Amino acid sequence: MTYQSERIPPKVVKEKIEEQWNDNEGMIPIPVLVDINETEEETFARHNLQEGDIVIFRTDTAGVRETWRDAHKYADELVAIEIVLHTMISRQRLFDLMQEIRRIVRTYKHQFGNYHEAVYLSFVEITQQQLNVWQGIIRVQLDTRRIWIGGS
């Protein structure tokens, strides 16, 4: 059996977003995309929002859930991802960023690496932060159903 490295869910989502981004003729330029676990802390801490929007990918607090099925012969794997959006342009830009990410997830839902499906779950606008900085959180779930895990 050959070695196959484990997928890193936030990286899978980030790469698909980066690959499929449509800037709508310059109206929504691709933001800085950061996998929070794959970057140096200083890079994120020092990003200047006046230079452009930033989108951060991280595993949701629910993490990776596995549910066994059929007398423990199969399992379903569900991975929750949070995509955190930050912009200083406008509230409209926040919603445009959300719309583009939602479009990509829905259009390419069966093309996120080895996962069977990516599901757009929700968007929440964060309003209790700073004035003139608009933020929101998108939740996406990556599903792999009926993985053979063995058994007799």
How do the strands and helices of this protein lay out in sequence?
Elements: H1 9-20, E1 32-35, H2 41-45, E2 54-69, E3 74-87, H3 91-107, E4 117-126, E5 134-148
Parallel strand pairs: 1-2
Antiparallel strand pairs: 2-3, 3-5, 4-5
Keyphrases for this structure?
STM4215-like, single chain, 152 residues, alpha+beta, elongated, 22% helix, 5 strands
Structural class: alpha+beta
Helix content: 10-25%
Number of helices: 3
Largest sheet: 5 strands, mixed
What value does the average pLDDT take? 85
What is the architecture at the second tier of CATH? 2-Layer Sandwich
What is the C-level CATH assignment? Alpha Beta
Descriptive account of the structure:
- Helices cover 22% and strands 39% of the residues.
- It has a 5-stranded mixed β-sheet.
- The protein contains 3 helices and 5 strands.
- The chain has helices spanning 9-20, 41-45, 91-107, and strands at residues 32-35, 54-69, 74-87, 117-126, 134-148.
- It starts with 8 loop residues before the first helix and ends with a strand.
- It has one domain (9-148): 2-Layer Sandwich (STM4215-like).
- By secondary structure, the protein is an alpha+beta fold.
